[in-house]
Write a structure and sequence with these properties.
- It is globular and about 60 Å long.
- The strands form two sheets. The chain has a nine-stranded mixed β-sheet with strand order 14-13-12-11-7-10-9-8-15, with helices on one face.
- With about 350 residues, the protein is α/β, with parallel strands linked by helices.
- The mean pLDDT is about 95.
- Helix content is about 35%, strand content about 25%.
- The longest helix has 23 residues.
- The structure holds nicotinamide-adenine-dinucleotide.
- Nicotinamide-adenine-dinucleotide binds next to loops.
């Protein structure tokens, strides 16, 4: 790798301010990168972000200003989902490589168009931020599964449940395209397979009443069927009032792997593998300690802080080595294709059979 990579962060709200902090920390810890600019349409927010980190970084108000300033060729895009495509296209045209927060564009139609454009003109310009692939507990679970310790896997259950509704004013394209994209990519990554069929069961049961955000459901289940006798279930909700619930259960013919039991201990993530009935001891058990930042942050940072940082480090390494990214626009597209298939077969209470 040559010199350090200059990296800007565009959009420093809830998630972007964490990416900016991690760029700054990686710069200090590894010397592999430099925080080149903090950009936000709300310039005061960008100033506050820079001030919180105590660094004298250029603060800019738009992607156009960033391009004109010529400060860097690598940028993390953390603006609202509906701007991802526009901002990524602008920056890539100007010669940047970009790390784009999930989801790619927010809809399968737009994902398809954008992915085709990128494949044609810039196949290696975009890394998609699926931080679960950098999460040590999930990586450990995958290594247990791949080692065959629980035999042939026939079912995966993956949940992601917020403790609060989406904020007032939040623009959601639906709870599944917005949230379950993480779980769906996780399942495709764990199994290396695409499902054959999908359906969704959706309900509004509680927190939709507490927000002005218009979202289709506050609780939904996506069911997936794969070839060769395998199924998966993704549970997403905004109703888990006691805290962020992120759990994965992998069921095999010889046992089960469990990642992240909810125990109101947000910084301890337990991975356990159990054998068949009758065994006294687990096949494996490890606790992964997450990072406690110096101030209170959104609940997803409690659970995935180190994974976000590892994801950023991978982005920086690939930029330095001019190497392809490990996760691209096509990973975003394939997860959204699965969700979109499920959304074509939604069952609501009105559509269910009367009891
Ligand atoms: N990977 C994860 O776990 C995770 C978690 C949260 C959010 N996200 C994703 O991150 C993205 C941002 O979400 P958030 O919750 O941080 O939103 P947010 O509203 O808190 O932050 C977005 C920021 O972008 C700024 N912005 C808006 N338009 C802009 C423009 N044209 N130019 C420059 N800045 C602009 C806003 O002022 C705001 O500061 C979304 O796509 C979301 O899906 C991912």
């Amino acid at each position: 790798m040559s010199g350090p990579i200059n990296v800007a962060v565009v959009g420093v709200g809830r998630m972007g301010s964490i990416h900016a902090l991690h760029v700054r920390e990686l710069a200090q810890e590894t010397g592999r990168c430099v925080l080149a600019a903090v950009v936000d349409g709300n310039i005061e927010r960008a100033r506050q972000c820079a001030a919180r980190m105590g660094c004298d970084v250029p603060v800019l108000a738009s992607v156009g200003e960033l391009i004109d300033a010529g400060l860097c060729n690598a940028t993390v895009i953390v603006t609202p989902t509906e701007s991802h495509r526009e901002h990524a296209a602008q920056l890539i045209t100007a010669g940047h490589r970009v790390l784009v927060e999930k989801p790619l564009t927010g809809t399968v139609e737009s994902d398809r168009e954008f992915a085709a454009e990128l494949d044609r003109n810039n196949p290696h310009a975009l890394m998609l931020a699926f931080q679960r692939r950098f999460d040590l507990p999930l990586q450990y679970a995958k290594s247990l599964m791949d080692s065959g310790v629980i035999g042939r896997v026939f079912k995966i259950y993956s949940s992601l449940e917020d403790s609060n509704p989406a904020p007032n004013g939040y623009k959601s394209g639906g709870i599944l395209p917005d949230m379950s994209i993480h779980n769906v990519d996780e399942i495709l990554w764990l199994t290396g397979r695409m499902p054959r069929a999908a359906l969704v069961v959706g309900s509004n049961i509680y927190t939709h009443r507490l927000t002005t955000c218009q979202e289709d459901f506050d609780d939904a289940l996506l069911c997936l069927w794969f070839d060769n006798e395998m199924a998966a279930q993704v549970q997403v909700s905004r109703n888990h009032v006691c805290g962020y619930r992120v759990e994965t259960l992998i069921f095999g013919e010889e046992g089960q792997i469990h990642v992240g039991r909810f125990e109101q201990k947000p910084f301890d993530v337990i991975v356990e593998a159990y054998g068949r009935r009758g065994r006294d001891e687990p096949l494996a058990r490890r606790t992964f300690r997450m990072r406690q930042y110096t101030h209170v942050l959104p609940e997803f940072v409690d659970r995935f802080g180190p994974a976000y940082k590892a994801e950023l480090a991978a982005f920086v390494e690939c930029c330095g080595a001019e190497a392809p990214f490990p996760i691209t626009h096509n990973d975003g597209l394939r997860a959204q294709k699965v969700i979109s298939a499920g959304m074509r077969a939604v069952v609501t209470e009105e559509q269910a059979a009367v009891v």
